[in-house]
Automatic annotation (TrEMBL):
Residues 5-312 form the Enoyl reductase (ER) domain. Belongs to the zinc-containing alcohol dehydrogenase family. Quinone oxidoreductase subfamily. It comes from Acipenser ruthenus (Sterlet sturgeon). One of its GO terms (cellular component) is mitochondrion. This is 15-oxoprostaglandin 13-reductase.
Length: 322
Protein backbone atom coordinates (compact mmCIF):
# COMPACT_ATOMS: atom_id res chain seq x y z
CA UNK A 1 0.00 0.00 0.00
CA UNK A 2 1.40 3.38 -0.95
CA UNK A 3 1.47 6.41 1.35
CA UNK A 4 -2.02 7.81 1.80
CA UNK A 5 -3.68 4.42 1.52
CA UNK A 6 -3.77 4.15 -2.29
CA UNK A 7 -2.81 0.92 -4.01
CA UNK A 8 -0.43 1.74 -6.83
CA UNK A 9 1.08 -1.65 -7.59
CA UNK A 10 0.42 -4.19 -10.31
CA UNK A 11 1.18 -7.89 -9.90
CA UNK A 12 2.89 -9.31 -12.95
CA UNK A 13 3.23 -12.91 -14.09
CA UNK A 14 6.65 -13.33 -15.69
CA UNK A 15 7.21 -14.73 -19.15
CA UNK A 16 10.88 -13.79 -19.59
CA UNK A 17 13.66 -12.28 -17.48
CA UNK A 18 16.88 -10.72 -18.71
CA UNK A 19 20.42 -11.66 -17.72
CA UNK A 20 22.98 -8.90 -17.19
CA UNK A 21 26.69 -8.84 -16.36
CA UNK A 22 25.83 -6.62 -13.40
CA UNK A 23 23.83 -9.45 -11.81
CA UNK A 24 27.19 -10.55 -10.37
CA UNK A 25 27.94 -7.13 -8.90
CA UNK A 26 24.49 -6.88 -7.38
CA UNK A 27 24.57 -10.33 -5.79
CA UNK A 28 28.07 -9.56 -4.45
CA UNK A 29 26.68 -6.49 -2.65
CA UNK A 30 28.67 -3.96 -4.66
CA UNK A 31 25.71 -1.82 -5.72
CA UNK A 32 24.21 -1.51 -2.27
CA UNK A 33 26.43 -2.89 0.54
CA UNK A 34 23.62 -2.30 3.03
CA UNK A 35 21.55 -5.08 1.45
CA UNK A 36 22.20 -8.39 3.18
CA UNK A 37 21.21 -11.92 2.05
CA UNK A 38 18.67 -13.20 1.47
CA UNK A 39 17.47 -10.66 -1.10
CA UNK A 40 15.76 -10.71 -4.48
CA UNK A 41 17.97 -10.43 -7.58
CA UNK A 42 17.39 -9.69 -11.25
CA UNK A 43 16.81 -6.36 -12.96
CA UNK A 44 14.25 -6.78 -15.76
CA UNK A 45 11.28 -8.85 -16.83
CA UNK A 46 8.34 -9.01 -19.21
CA UNK A 47 4.93 -10.61 -18.67
CA UNK A 48 1.19 -10.15 -18.15
CA UNK A 49 -0.55 -8.11 -15.47
CA UNK A 50 -2.63 -10.49 -13.32
CA UNK A 51 -3.82 -8.10 -10.58
CA UNK A 52 -3.97 -4.35 -9.99
CA UNK A 53 -3.98 -1.93 -7.11
CA UNK A 54 -6.64 0.81 -7.13
CA UNK A 55 -4.67 3.64 -8.71
CA UNK A 56 -2.83 1.29 -11.09
CA UNK A 57 -6.16 0.22 -12.59
CA UNK A 58 -6.58 3.70 -14.06
CA UNK A 59 -3.74 3.10 -16.51
CA UNK A 60 -3.42 -0.69 -16.78
CA UNK A 61 -5.68 -3.68 -17.32
CA UNK A 62 -5.46 -7.32 -16.28
CA UNK A 63 -3.94 -9.30 -19.14
CA UNK A 64 -1.96 -6.36 -20.47
CA UNK A 65 1.66 -7.16 -21.35
CA UNK A 66 4.25 -4.93 -19.71
CA UNK A 67 7.99 -4.88 -19.29
CA UNK A 68 9.65 -3.49 -16.20
CA UNK A 69 13.05 -2.59 -14.82
CA UNK A 70 13.71 -2.95 -11.11
CA UNK A 71 15.17 -5.17 -8.41
CA UNK A 72 13.77 -8.66 -7.81
CA UNK A 73 13.04 -9.69 -11.40
CA UNK A 74 14.11 -13.32 -10.88
CA UNK A 75 10.67 -14.50 -9.76
CA UNK A 76 7.53 -16.09 -11.19
CA UNK A 77 5.40 -13.18 -9.95
CA UNK A 78 6.50 -9.68 -9.01
CA UNK A 79 4.73 -6.75 -7.38
CA UNK A 80 5.77 -3.72 -9.39
CA UNK A 81 5.04 -0.01 -8.93
CA UNK A 82 2.94 0.98 -11.93
CA UNK A 83 5.28 3.88 -12.73
CA UNK A 84 8.09 1.38 -13.39
CA UNK A 85 6.22 -0.54 -16.07
CA UNK A 86 6.30 -0.02 -19.82
CA UNK A 87 3.44 -1.40 -21.97
CA UNK A 88 4.74 -3.53 -24.86
CA UNK A 89 2.87 -4.98 -27.85
CA UNK A 90 3.32 -8.63 -26.81
CA UNK A 91 5.28 -10.92 -24.50
CA UNK A 92 8.12 -11.35 -26.97
CA UNK A 93 11.62 -11.58 -25.46
CA UNK A 94 12.83 -9.17 -28.15
CA UNK A 95 11.04 -6.33 -26.37
CA UNK A 96 12.82 -7.23 -23.13
CA UNK A 97 16.19 -6.57 -24.78
CA UNK A 98 15.33 -2.87 -24.91
CA UNK A 99 14.76 -2.35 -21.19
CA UNK A 100 18.36 -2.23 -19.97
CA UNK A 101 20.59 -3.11 -22.90
CA UNK A 102 18.89 -1.06 -25.59
CA UNK A 103 18.25 1.92 -23.32
CA UNK A 104 21.88 1.97 -22.12
CA UNK A 105 23.19 2.14 -25.69
CA UNK A 106 20.53 4.58 -26.91
CA UNK A 107 20.82 7.13 -24.10
CA UNK A 108 24.57 6.95 -23.55
CA UNK A 109 25.41 7.47 -27.21
CA UNK A 110 22.84 10.24 -27.53
CA UNK A 111 23.75 12.16 -24.38
CA UNK A 112 27.48 11.44 -24.09
CA UNK A 113 28.59 10.19 -27.50
CA UNK A 114 27.45 13.23 -29.49
CA UNK A 115 27.88 11.19 -32.68
CA UNK A 116 28.60 12.92 -35.98
CA UNK A 117 28.49 11.47 -39.48
CA UNK A 118 31.72 9.77 -40.51
CA UNK A 119 33.15 9.37 -37.01
CA UNK A 120 34.94 6.16 -36.02
CA UNK A 121 33.03 4.37 -33.26
CA UNK A 122 34.65 1.45 -31.43
CA UNK A 123 32.31 -0.95 -29.58
CA UNK A 124 33.72 -3.59 -27.23
CA UNK A 125 31.77 -6.85 -26.74
CA UNK A 126 29.84 -5.73 -29.78
CA UNK A 127 27.86 -8.95 -30.28
CA UNK A 128 26.53 -8.93 -26.72
CA UNK A 129 23.27 -7.72 -25.24
CA UNK A 130 24.07 -4.00 -25.25
CA UNK A 131 26.85 -4.01 -27.84
CA UNK A 132 24.43 -5.05 -30.59
CA UNK A 133 22.44 -1.86 -30.01
CA UNK A 134 25.50 0.39 -29.81
CA UNK A 135 26.53 -0.89 -33.25
CA UNK A 136 23.10 -0.21 -34.74
CA UNK A 137 22.61 3.25 -33.23
CA UNK A 138 26.09 4.31 -34.34
CA UNK A 139 25.31 3.15 -37.87
CA UNK A 140 22.04 5.07 -37.84
CA UNK A 141 24.14 8.15 -37.05
CA UNK A 142 26.15 7.36 -40.21
CA UNK A 143 29.31 6.51 -38.33
CA UNK A 144 31.97 3.94 -39.22
CA UNK A 145 31.68 1.15 -36.63
CA UNK A 146 34.39 -1.19 -35.38
CA UNK A 147 33.31 -3.99 -33.05
CA UNK A 148 35.19 -6.60 -31.04
CA UNK A 149 33.98 -10.19 -30.71
CA UNK A 150 35.30 -13.68 -29.93
CA UNK A 151 34.29 -15.87 -32.90
CA UNK A 152 33.74 -15.85 -36.64
CA UNK A 153 30.05 -16.55 -36.01
CA UNK A 154 29.79 -13.38 -33.95
CA UNK A 155 31.73 -11.46 -36.61
CA UNK A 156 29.16 -12.60 -39.17
CA UNK A 157 26.34 -11.42 -36.92
CA UNK A 158 28.02 -8.03 -36.51
CA UNK A 159 28.31 -7.62 -40.27
CA UNK A 160 24.62 -8.45 -40.61
CA UNK A 161 23.66 -5.53 -38.33
CA UNK A 162 25.93 -3.04 -40.06
CA UNK A 163 29.31 -3.27 -38.31
CA UNK A 164 31.94 -2.08 -40.80
CA UNK A 165 34.93 -3.81 -39.20
CA UNK A 166 34.33 -6.73 -36.84
CA UNK A 167 37.52 -7.78 -35.03
CA UNK A 168 37.67 -11.37 -33.80
CA UNK A 169 40.21 -10.97 -31.01
CA UNK A 170 40.82 -14.73 -30.95
CA UNK A 171 42.34 -14.56 -34.43
CA UNK A 172 43.42 -10.91 -34.75
CA UNK A 173 45.41 -8.51 -32.61
CA UNK A 174 43.06 -5.64 -31.79
CA UNK A 175 45.93 -3.25 -31.06
CA UNK A 176 47.56 -3.91 -34.44
CA UNK A 177 44.28 -3.65 -36.36
CA UNK A 178 43.53 -0.26 -34.81
CA UNK A 179 47.08 1.01 -35.32
CA UNK A 180 47.23 0.02 -38.99
CA UNK A 181 43.67 0.59 -40.13
CA UNK A 182 42.73 3.58 -37.96
CA UNK A 183 45.94 5.61 -37.58
CA UNK A 184 44.02 8.81 -36.73
CA UNK A 185 42.37 7.12 -33.76
CA UNK A 186 38.85 6.49 -32.48
CA UNK A 187 36.33 9.29 -32.10
CA UNK A 188 33.98 7.41 -29.76
CA UNK A 189 34.57 4.28 -27.69
CA UNK A 190 31.66 2.34 -26.15
CA UNK A 191 33.49 0.34 -23.47
CA UNK A 192 32.21 -2.44 -21.24
CA UNK A 193 35.26 -4.64 -20.63
CA UNK A 194 37.71 -2.65 -18.51
CA UNK A 195 41.28 -3.64 -17.65
CA UNK A 196 43.58 -4.03 -20.65
CA UNK A 197 40.80 -3.17 -23.09
CA UNK A 198 40.26 0.16 -21.36
CA UNK A 199 43.98 0.93 -21.56
CA UNK A 200 44.06 0.03 -25.25
CA UNK A 201 41.05 2.24 -25.99
CA UNK A 202 42.52 5.22 -24.14
CA UNK A 203 45.72 4.96 -26.16
CA UNK A 204 43.85 4.82 -29.46
CA UNK A 205 41.51 7.77 -28.87
CA UNK A 206 41.49 10.51 -31.50
CA UNK A 207 41.72 14.23 -30.87
CA UNK A 208 38.51 15.26 -29.08
CA UNK A 209 37.69 11.58 -28.62
CA UNK A 210 35.04 10.43 -26.14
CA UNK A 211 35.31 7.17 -24.21
CA UNK A 212 32.04 6.05 -22.61
CA UNK A 213 32.39 3.55 -19.76
CA UNK A 214 29.22 1.47 -19.35
CA UNK A 215 30.85 -1.33 -17.37
CA UNK A 216 34.02 -3.33 -16.71
CA UNK A 217 33.00 -6.97 -16.90
CA UNK A 218 36.60 -8.22 -16.80
CA UNK A 219 36.66 -7.37 -13.09
CA UNK A 220 33.18 -8.33 -11.94
CA UNK A 221 34.21 -11.78 -10.74
CA UNK A 222 37.35 -10.61 -8.94
CA UNK A 223 37.58 -10.00 -5.20
CA UNK A 224 37.51 -6.22 -5.62
CA UNK A 225 35.26 -6.04 -8.70
CA UNK A 226 37.78 -3.82 -10.51
CA UNK A 227 40.75 -4.78 -12.65
CA UNK A 228 43.70 -2.37 -12.42
CA UNK A 229 44.25 0.04 -15.31
CA UNK A 230 47.32 2.11 -16.15
CA UNK A 231 46.10 5.54 -15.15
CA UNK A 232 49.39 7.17 -14.19
CA UNK A 233 49.69 9.18 -17.41
CA UNK A 234 45.97 9.45 -18.05
CA UNK A 235 45.69 13.23 -17.35
CA UNK A 236 48.46 13.94 -19.87
CA UNK A 237 46.90 11.69 -22.51
CA UNK A 238 43.52 13.38 -22.15
CA UNK A 239 45.06 16.85 -22.21
CA UNK A 240 47.19 16.17 -25.28
CA UNK A 241 44.13 15.06 -27.26
CA UNK A 242 41.41 17.21 -25.64
CA UNK A 243 39.79 13.82 -25.04
CA UNK A 244 37.31 12.80 -22.36
CA UNK A 245 36.25 9.74 -20.40
CA UNK A 246 32.60 9.62 -19.36
CA UNK A 247 30.83 7.16 -17.10
CA UNK A 248 27.25 6.07 -17.79
CA UNK A 249 24.91 4.39 -15.28
CA UNK A 250 21.34 4.05 -16.53
CA UNK A 251 19.55 4.86 -13.22
CA UNK A 252 21.04 8.37 -13.41
CA UNK A 253 19.29 9.01 -16.74
CA UNK A 254 15.75 7.88 -16.01
CA UNK A 255 14.40 11.25 -17.19
CA UNK A 256 15.39 10.12 -20.71
CA UNK A 257 14.07 6.59 -20.34
CA UNK A 258 10.45 6.77 -21.50
CA UNK A 259 11.27 8.71 -24.66
CA UNK A 260 14.06 6.26 -25.47
CA UNK A 261 11.78 3.24 -24.97
CA UNK A 262 9.04 4.79 -27.10
CA UNK A 263 11.43 5.39 -29.98
CA UNK A 264 13.06 1.96 -29.74
CA UNK A 265 9.70 0.16 -29.61
CA UNK A 266 8.63 2.04 -32.74
CA UNK A 267 11.84 1.06 -34.50
CA UNK A 268 11.45 -2.56 -33.40
CA UNK A 269 7.86 -2.74 -34.64
CA UNK A 270 8.91 -1.29 -38.01
CA UNK A 271 11.73 -3.81 -38.38
CA UNK A 272 14.34 -1.05 -38.18
CA UNK A 273 16.10 -2.50 -35.14
CA UNK A 274 17.50 -5.99 -34.65
CA UNK A 275 16.88 -7.24 -31.10
CA UNK A 276 18.88 -10.47 -31.01
CA UNK A 277 17.90 -12.87 -28.22
CA UNK A 278 19.91 -15.83 -26.94
CA UNK A 279 17.73 -18.31 -25.05
CA UNK A 280 20.53 -20.85 -24.73
CA UNK A 281 19.15 -23.37 -27.20
CA UNK A 282 22.67 -24.22 -28.36
CA UNK A 283 24.01 -24.96 -24.87
CA UNK A 284 24.63 -28.63 -23.92
CA UNK A 285 21.81 -28.49 -21.34
CA UNK A 286 19.42 -26.77 -23.73
CA UNK A 287 17.22 -23.70 -23.46
CA UNK A 288 17.26 -21.48 -20.38
CA UNK A 289 13.90 -22.44 -18.91
CA UNK A 290 12.73 -21.76 -15.37
CA UNK A 291 14.32 -19.85 -12.51
CA UNK A 292 16.64 -22.78 -11.79
CA UNK A 293 18.44 -22.03 -15.07
CA UNK A 294 19.28 -18.42 -14.17
CA UNK A 295 22.64 -19.40 -12.66
CA UNK A 296 23.47 -21.35 -15.84
CA UNK A 297 22.57 -18.36 -17.98
CA UNK A 298 24.84 -16.08 -15.92
CA UNK A 299 27.71 -18.56 -16.32
CA UNK A 300 27.02 -18.66 -20.06
CA UNK A 301 27.30 -14.87 -20.26
CA UNK A 302 30.65 -14.88 -18.48
CA UNK A 303 31.95 -17.58 -20.83
CA UNK A 304 31.29 -15.12 -23.66
CA UNK A 305 29.27 -17.61 -25.70
CA UNK A 306 26.15 -15.53 -26.30
CA UNK A 307 25.11 -13.65 -29.40
CA UNK A 308 22.69 -10.90 -28.38
CA UNK A 309 20.83 -10.59 -25.11
CA UNK A 310 20.59 -13.63 -22.83
CA UNK A 311 17.00 -14.25 -21.75
CA UNK A 312 15.45 -16.92 -19.51
CA UNK A 313 11.90 -18.12 -20.10
CA UNK A 314 9.78 -18.49 -16.96
CA UNK A 315 7.03 -21.13 -17.13
CA UNK A 316 3.62 -20.44 -15.62
CA UNK A 317 3.30 -22.46 -12.40
CA UNK A 318 0.42 -24.95 -12.74
CA UNK A 319 -0.44 -24.78 -9.04
CA UNK A 320 -0.72 -20.99 -8.98
CA UNK A 321 -3.99 -19.53 -7.62
CA UNK A 322 -3.45 -16.10 -9.17
Amino acid sequence: MAPGGKYWYSIKKKRFVGINASDINYSAGRYDPSVKPPFDAGFEGIGEVVALGLSASANHTVGEVVAYMGDGAFAEYTVVPAKKTVPVPSAKPEFLTLMLSGATAYISLKKLGALSEGEKVFVTAAAGGTGQFAVQFAKRAKCHVIGTCSSDEKAGFLKSIGCDRPINYKTEDIREVLRKEYPKGLDVVYESIGGEMFDLAVNRMATKGRLIVIGFISGYQTATGVKPVRTGTLPAKLLQKSASILGFFLPHYLSEYKAAMKHMLEMCEKGELVCEVDLGEMTPEGKFFGLESVFRAVDYLYLGKNIGKIVVEIPHPVSSKL
